[in-house]
Amino acid sequence: MYYYITKIVITTLLIVLISEITKRSSLVGALLAAVPLVSILAMTWMYIDTNTSNTAVEFSNKIVWLIAPSMTLFIMFPILIKKGIHFYPSMAISVASTIIAYYLMILILEKFGIKM
Fold it and tell me: Which of 4, 86, 95, 105 is packed most tightly, with the most Cβ within 10 A?
């Protein structure tokens, strides 16, 4: 139980820290957010949990294929905001579009025999 609480606390603190840094410098915050901290943490927790790097490697390989569709959010969101759509609808549309992009990427990969 203490292990799970430790994981939650460390992960939460990193997210809050990045959020607070972003208030002071959007560039530094963006740089920290661009570093795949969540993926690094997830792979670290996987390794600690299983004592093998195999699951982390498989996880990492799958992330590579999902990087391109994740750009949908970062492209659509500012475009929608600049078009005058309010924050929450812009975020919702961007997230929904990103989910659709993920789904399409998975379908395309499966057509080429790459199992996700």
Answer: 105
Are 62 and 116 a contacting pair, CB within 8 Å? yes
> Does residue 94 fall inside a structural domain?
yes
**Between these two residues, 34 and 96, which has the higher pLDDT value?**
96
Distance (Å) of CA 40 to CA 51, 52, 103: 15, 15, 23
For residue 44, is it within any domain? no
Q: Is residue 107 part of a domain?
A: yes
Q: Does residue 68 lie in a domain region? A: yes
The packing angle between helices 2-24 and 37-50, to 10°, is 170
Domain that holds residue 60: 56-116
Query: Which segments of the chain does DSSP mark as H helices, in order?
Result: 2-24, 26-34, 37-50, 54-82, 87-111
Q: Whole-number mean pLDDT of the chain?
A: 92
Q: Nearest Cα to 36, choosing from 9, 52, 55, 14?
A: 14
